Amino acid sequence: MNAASCVIVFESVHHAIRAEKILLGKGMALEMIPTPRELSMSCGQSIEVSMPDGVLAEKILRESGAQYKAIYWRDKGRRGFEQTTQRDFDTGE
User: Fold this and answer.
1) Are 65 and 92 in contact (CB under 8 A)?
2) Which of 6, 2, 28 shows the shortest CA–CA distance to 84?
3) Please, are residues 70 and 6 in contact by the beta-carbon 8 Å criterion?
């Protein structure tokens, strides 16, 4: 991935795999990565997409009804992550 990216975090590997299939089906470039422990202990797999594709990825996942826990922005030139969105996992909002 390039210098800026988004990391999409999930509650389960099942949700991560479903989201991967949806995003790949839309032609998005992505990378499955181990979930950074500072973001979540829920699921061991996350999806990383380049910026500004993170905005499009979120839109695609919301429209498809795919469940994700949160999306974080990361600038690899800096340390840490910045949360951009979080969903209520039960309601999908």
Assistant:
1) yes
2) 6
3) no
pTM of the entire structure? 0.80
Inform me whether the pLDDT recorded for 18 exceeds 80: yes
Q: What are the Cα distances from residue 28, in Å, to 25, 42, 48, 72, 77?
A: 7, 25, 11, 18, 23
Q: Is the dihedral of CA 41, 11, 82, 76 positive or negative?
A: positive
**Please, what are the domains in the chain?**
4-86 (3.30.70.1530)
Q: Which two tokens stand for residue 62?
A: 């919301």
pLDDT digits over 28-71, tens only? 999 999 998 888 777 789 999 998 788 899 999 999 999 999 99
